[in-house]
């Protein structure tokens, strides 16, 4: 065997084992896709015997993002890792690939005039994260604006809730793109050590941006999380809009009301700090005797009625609450690790597989 042939044989063995591990359920499944017998595949993997172009390499190029030249001349494990940042491996990034349900609130109502019940206000959609076969970049497709019943039916039809291979996700992407009657958003996926960024575009007509936490867990795949979405509101108006978006790999076995309620972020744990000082000072002035408090001016009237005292305190409490809430609730819109973790356990709890 020539030196370059020996190297090609070694690379073939290494690369095929890598592809089977990351993109196929088993060696048997891979052999079926390549249209060869399982014993033939075993021989290739053990001895490095280079198979013929047809059917093996013909099917390999059709089913995977790699060419025959790459398989025989390149260590694709190194090449794949080079396309990622130092703190995110391909293995970690691949955990995100799959078909998801997602939930969010309808934005069509005018601000301050939303009188819908939770079930009526809840919208849902489908999100596919996959690795593009042609350019090997991570991409996403999303369908918005479905009611939960319709979304669940399409989710199951597309094979949602099952572990997917690269090939099956490509097929799911083709199916979603074939829905000519719906508005599909397509875009890119950026993955960092802490977050996942999804940029979704409906041509030039509409755009959405989603940020999710990326937990660095040991699980086989990403189950779901709570993210922030920036988009434009729907309906008669089109305003910049921010809201929470819940993502789940499973078709959760729970009512729409419960899902809608879970999308509401909990009230933040607020520490008012020195903002309470004016209120405490006022109470002391109103109820302490003149001799016990030196800073009270001589013309301060101590004989105030209880009603007037209560009115003064009520006014100061109202001012304090408004100031603290405004500072901690309305200045920024944050989804904490705690919010994300609570949604994760919510999804895990209501996975239909866990209910036997």
What does this structure look like?
The structure is a single chain. By secondary structure, this protein is an alpha+beta fold. It is built from 14 helices and eight strands. The protein has helices at residues 3-23, 27-34, 38-47, 53-63, 68-73, 76-82, 90-94, 118-121, 148-157, 166-177, 256-262, 277-287, 306-330, 337-349; strands spanning 98-105, 122-131, 138-146, 184-191, 195-202, 206-213, 224-232, 240-248. Strands 1-2-3-4-5-6-7-8 form an eight-stranded antiparallel beta barrel, surrounded by four helices. The radius of gyration is 29 Å and the shape is elongated.
Key traits:
alpha+beta, 14 helices, 19% strand
Summed up:
Strands 1-2-3-4-5-6-7-8 form an eight-stranded antiparallel β-barrel, surrounded by four helices. 42% of the residues lie in helices and 19% in strands.
Topology, please?
Blueprint: H1 3-23, H2 27-34, H3 38-47, H4 53-63, H5 68-73, H6 76-82, H7 90-94, E1 98-105, H8 118-121, E2 122-131, E3 138-146, H9 148-157, H10 166-177, E4 184-191, E5 195-202, E6 206-213, E7 224-232, E8 240-248, H11 256-262, H12 277-287, H13 306-330, H14 337-349
Antiparallel strand pairs: 1-2, 1-8, 2-3, 3-4, 4-5, 5-6, 6-7, 7-8
Helix pairs in contact: 1-3, 2-3, 12-13
How helical, in percent, are the residues? 40-55%
Strand order within the widest sheet? 1-2-3-4-5-6-7-8
Order of helices and strands: HHHHHHHEHEEHHEEEEEHHHH
The class by helix and strand makeup works out as: alpha+beta
Sum up the overall morphology in one term. elongated
Number of beta strands: 8
Low-pLDDT regions: none
Number of helices: 14
Strand content: 15-25%
The mean pLDDT is: 81
Main sheet record: 8 strands, antiparallel, barrel
- Using only C-alpha atoms, the radius of gyration works out to 29 Å
Amino- and carboxy-terminal Cα gap: 56 Å
């Amino acid at each position: 065997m020539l030196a370059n042939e020996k190297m090609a044989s070694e690379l073939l063995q290494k690369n095929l084992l890598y592809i089977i591990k990351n993109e196929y359920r088993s060696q048997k499944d891979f052999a079926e896709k390549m249209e060869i017998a399982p014993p033939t595949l075993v021989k290739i993997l053990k001895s490095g015997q280079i198979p013929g172009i047809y059917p093996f390499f013909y099917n390999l190029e059709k089913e995977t993002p790699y060419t025959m030249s790459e398989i025989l001349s390149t260590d694709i494990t190194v090449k794949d890792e080079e396309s990622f940042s130092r703190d995110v491996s391909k293995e970690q990034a691949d955990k995100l690939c799959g078909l998801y349900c997602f939930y969010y609130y309808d934005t069509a109502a005018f601000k301050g005039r939303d009188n819908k019940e939770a079930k009526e206000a809840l919208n849902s959609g489908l999100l596919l994260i996959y690795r593009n076969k042609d350019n090997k970049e991570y991409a996403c497709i999303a369908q918005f604006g479905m009611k939960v019943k319709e979304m669940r039916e399409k989710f199951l039809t597309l094979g949602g809730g099952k572990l997917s291979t690269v090939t099956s996700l490509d097929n799911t992407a083709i199916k979603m793109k074939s829905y000519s009657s719906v508005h599909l958003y397509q875009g890119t996926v950026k993955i960092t050590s802490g977050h996942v960024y999804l940029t979704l575009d409906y041509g030039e007509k509409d755009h959405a941006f989603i940020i999710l936490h990326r937990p660095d867990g040991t699980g086989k795949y990403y189950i779901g999380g709570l993210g922030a979405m920036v988009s434009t509101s729907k309906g008669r108006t089109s305003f910049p809009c921010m809201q929470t978006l819940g993502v789940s790999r499973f078709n959760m076995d729970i009512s729409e009301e419960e899902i809608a309620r879970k999308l509401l972020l909990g009230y933040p744990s607020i520490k008012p700090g020195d903002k309470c000082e004016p209120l405490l000072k006022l109470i002391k002035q109103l109820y302490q005797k003149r001799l016990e408090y030196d800073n009270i001016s001589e013309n301060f009237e101590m004989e105030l009625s209880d009603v007037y005292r209560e009115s003064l305190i009520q006014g100061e409490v109202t001012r304090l609450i408004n100031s603290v809430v405004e500072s901690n609730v309305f200045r920024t819109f944050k989804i904490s690790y705690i919010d994300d973790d609570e949604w994760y356990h919510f999804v895990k709890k209501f996975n239909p597989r866990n209910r036997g």
